[in-house]
Amino acid sequence: MKFKATATAEDITGDVKNGEHFCYAEETKLAWEEGKLCADITEEQRKLTQADLIIFQFPMYWFTVPAIMKGWIDRVLSLGYAYSQDKRYSQGIFKDKKAMLSFTTGSHETMFSANGINGDMNVTLWPLQNGILHYCGFQVLAPQIFWAPSYIPSEARITMLEGWRMRLQGLMGEKVLSFTPLDCFDGEKGYKLKPELHEKQATKEFGLTVGVHLGMVIPPNSQMKAGV
Fold this sequence. Notes:
Layout: H1 24-33, H2 39-50, E1 53-59, H3 67-76, E2 98-104, H4 121-134, E3 139-140, E4 144-146, H5 154-169, E5 185-186, E6 192-193, H6 195-201
Parallel strand pairs: 1-2, 2-3, 2-4
Antiparallel strand pairs: 5-6
């Protein structure tokens, strides 16, 4: 499938509301409400609406998704359709759907460890899994990571694929990753963690999540394994 890597005003058919001070999110929200988004976007949104599970398959590129996939995210997960001020995170629009990342890396697993040169993979995944998938309400399954397939023997790559095939058979029954629910944050005070929850967490060994760590130790593997 060909898909633009950049979101532009061309994603809207017809005139925009405010061309002088163009705001992509607001303009696409209006276009979505009025049925004026481009056909390629509406087709992807149709498929997403019908899906129970979305698997993002990609080669990790500069520690994130390739530009063409980022373009898909920017254009398809539009304001109004995929999220709103009131419908996001644990109360998000896609809270009845599951999503996951499945990707290859150019570096070995040791390089993405907590003491590896690339840094902790849990930290790398936080913007993608929390800031995009969970933000839209998806229940996020643990990622499927194929570590440095270009640098291992063919037999090892075959083993990787067999493990993925086996996992796919029971994927929908897996537990999902844990994120702090939206109602744990005080919307009237800038969506900061409620004081009583902050106080309760202070007695524990780890912070809540990779992002909401409260200045404490980041919980190990919380972005890579369910139930952590």
